[in-house]
Write a structure and sequence with these properties.
The chain is an alpha+beta fold. It has two domains: about 100 residues, Phosphorylase Kinase, domain 1 (2-Layer Sandwich), CATH 3.30.200; about 140 residues, Aminoglycoside 3'-phosphotransferase, Chain: A, domain 2, CATH 3.90.1200. The two termini are about 35 Å apart. The relative contact order is 0.12.
Length: about 270
């Protein structure tokens, strides 16, 4: 779970927009507030007008940046995947702007089962059953087969950034597939599993989701072993490409203060597969 914005003014701005959005959508907030990464989102459990339990999520951005992949992601994912894989349904959305900020509010199906971990970095083995892994593999296979023009990974970014962080040429992406784009155990529930938070989905190197899940679980070798067993693509040249790209992404993120504890194991894996 993340913290609210450090600026109290931003906290109050988000809370006011959240309350306005709930009223517009006919939702009554019933749970505590949950902040997203760097305070960019604010969410809470709510009750919908027809008495359905739901999850109200508010995304904020400067008005001139309220567009593109992240802004439209959950809505576009709903059109492609709702009812076809295990993900929360999207019930309704609304958009507004005020004082230079834009807001998109989304009402999602409320999923009562807990996530595997509260943080993207897995720190303890959840000891998940075989059926959990089978369900995840089946859903990701379906996701990878769906056509989209959204792009989650840019070859230009790979060419520019891999040499900076790994001192090796950026690999050429030759095999592309649609990916969830942010697959870690804080975005997976522990029973079904449901796949949460679709704002970053799009085309990526084949094996990208498996590589992301692996990278975030390297501190727990038993779970990492389960990822490798479930997704044999990781043992291929295509999977190597995906892993190099994901490792670079997380090293770049760590350089900005996120999950620095992963750096040693990420570099160890990069050296092993280079």
């Amino acid at each position: 779970m993340y913290s609210p914005p450090t600026d109290p003014t931003d906290q109050q701005r988000m809370r006011r927009a959240f309350a306005r959005s709930a009223e517009t959508l006919g939702a009554t907030v019933t749970g505590p507030e949950v902040w997203g990464w760097h305070g960019r989102t604010l969410s809470a459990r709510a009750q919908y007008s027809d008495q359905r339990a739901c999850w109200l999520r508010l995304l904020s951005a400067p008005e001139d940046k309220a567009a593109g992949k992240i802004w439209e992601g959950n809505r576009e994912a709903a059109a492609l995947f709702d009812g076809r894989i295990r993900k929360p349904l999207l019930y309704d959305t609304t958009q507004s702007s005020s004082n230079g900020h834009a807001y998109r509010a989304e009402l999602h199906q409320y999923i009562s089962e807990p996530v595997v971990s509260s943080d993207p970095v897995l720190r303890a083995d959840p000891n998940l059953p075989a059926r959990w892994w089978e369900s995840l593999r089946t859903d990701l296979e379906h996701v990878s087969s769906v056509a989209t023009d959204r792009v989650a990974v840019q070859q230009e970014w790979v060419d520019r950034t891999v040499p900076r962080y790994l001192r090796m040429p950026g690999p050429r992406i030759t095999d592309w597939a649609t990916a969830h784009g942010d697959l870690h155990t804080a975005n997976l529930t522990s029973l079904t599993p449901y796949l949460l938070d679709w704002e970053g989905f799009g085309l990526a190197p084949t094996g990208y989701d498996a590589a992301m899940l692996l990278a975030y679980s390297l501190l727990v070798p038993t779970f990492a072993h389960g990822v490798r067993d479930t997704f044999p693509v990781l043992k291929t040249e295509t999977g190597r490409t995906a892993q190099i790209i994901v490792i670079t992404e997380l090293l770049q993120s760590a350089s900005r203060g996120d999950h620095a504890e992963l750096v040693p194991v990420l570099r160890a894996v990069a050296a092993e597969i280079a």
